[in-house]
Design a protein that fits this description.
With 197 residues, the protein is α/β, with parallel strands linked by helices. The chain contains seven helices and seven strands; from the N terminus they run βαββααβαββαβαα. A five-stranded parallel beta sheet has the order 2-1-3-4-5, sandwiched between helices. Strands 6-7 form a two-stranded antiparallel sheet. α1 crosses α6 (165-183). The longest helix is centred in the last third of the chain and has 19 residues, at 165-183. It is globular, with a radius of gyration of 17 Å. The chain starts with a strand and ends with a helix.
Amino acid sequence: MGSFLVCYGTGEGQTATVATRIAETLTERGHDVTSENADEIPSDLLVDDFDAVLVGASVHRGAHQPAIREFVRSNRDVLTSKPTAFFQVSLSSATETGRAQAAEYVDMFLEDTDWYPDRIGLFGGALRYSKYGFLKRLMMKQIARRTISEMSEADASGDVEFTDWVEVEAFAADVAAFVEGRLGVTSPAVSESELSE
């Protein structure tokens, strides 16, 4: 099967959790997966050693993590030569009305890095009130009222998660199927399930 690199940037940890679920889905399909935080990439890691690469980032104040931008820029030639995907985690993606804003963040990132992945996923993030200081908690309460009021009234006393895990797994399966097609392989997990139908 194929080898996948999942490289991500994260703020309060939700993007790391999404990256883990994507890696688990790919592994269940029989692929070898290496997952790395962009802030902690080993110096001996070579992107060219992988059959496919997924890059993930969260949005904070309208921008993605600098380490993710640098990872894409420094590996752009290699990324262009193989199957790739980008996933973004943000509060904007938690609502239908916010998805246009989330898509704009993606467009800005791709234009800034001059990289155009084969697949793109937009996922709702989380409010981690338990990790915020007093001022950030106040600011995030205001953002939550504007951004996600149509979904629910976020409780500022506890953490709230807006990630659709079925959507995350479907994205990972779609990326896997795309890569399998490019590599000319069939996932054993898919083959077994198709035989049992």
